[in-house]
Amino acid sequence: RCPFERLLASRINEGATTAVASCDAVETRDPLTRESIEAAVKAQQADGVLSTKLVSFAWDTQAGGERDTRGGRNFKPVDAGYGYYGVPTVYGELQTAAPITTLKGEAHVTTNAWSTKGPTVVYTLDSAVSKFESRDQGLVTLVGPIVERLRKDGLIR
Fold first, then answer.
1. What is the DSSP letter of 85?
2. How confident is the model over 100-129, as pLDDT tens digits?
3. How many whole angstroms separate alpha carbon 138 and alpha carbon 121?
4. 139: which residues sit within 8 A by CB, 6+ positions away?
5. DSSP-assigned letter for residue 63
6. Across the beta sheet with 120-132, what order do the strands follow?
7. N or C end of the chain: smaller count of CB under 10 Å?
8. Per-residue pLDDT tens over the stretch 38-89
């Protein structure tokens, strides 16, 4: 979560909008709670909150030119288990796959912009990335279009 948040904040900060990753603003990073986010909003005097949740991801692995069956697909219901600011109310544990020769993946995320007065969702954006071969490549490929769309639609400057 933190690498994604920090990359997104750094790209937003390239413009006239100031962004702070929750990993740098909340006192306790895990698990995120409504209370910890509300405290960070107050401390940062934030006008809004962006929350991005993973809707689905898939990966395909190859080792030595043969298909590896360790790949799989996972889904998280889009509208279930999320409260204010997109804070999950149910947590799962993610484990990193063992190193392999090639890992190709795809991911689908939903980003919500929340007004801190309410809080209410004021904007929703679905994004996807495919054929990425590393986490870093996937993050860069995903974050760029999210920031471009937020600027184009006037949510950030």
1. G
2. 445 578 889 999 999 998 889 999 999 988
3. 26
4. 3, 4, 7
5. E
6. 66-75, 48-63, 102-115, 120-132
7. C
8. 999 999 999 999 999 888 888 775 554 444 444 444 444 444 445 666 665 4
